[in-house]
Amino acid sequence: MNVPKPVAPAAATAATTYDCGTIWYTGSALTVRGGTGERVAEVQCLLKLHGYRVKVDGVFGADTHAKVVDYQRSTGTTPCDGVVTPATWAALRDF
């Protein structure tokens, strides 16, 4: 009897690191929880520039979402739902 052998899980890939000295994204597209990549890294870098302690890994997870909500509340950016809208992008870039 041919019993299939278990397949080993794929090896984890190294996480991408992002340097906040680089501008990763200049647009204003909706950016939401679950997103990944340079656009998310830009949100995270901008949050850091505003004093928020957030990991800059390009992954829009629970921590980034919570920090976006906190930022939106502190600046009066509405809605305060953790979605990075064009209004939130503008506020994040307003220094």
Automatic annotation (TrEMBL):
GO terms for molecular function: hydrolase activity. The keyword Hydrolase applies. Keywords: Hydrolase. The keyword Hydrolase applies. Transmembrane segments: none annotated. Residues 36-92 form the Peptidoglycan binding-like domain. Pfam families: PG_binding_1. It comes from the Bacteria. This is Peptidoglycan hydrolase-like protein with peptidoglycan-binding domain. It comes from Streptomyces olivoverticillatus.
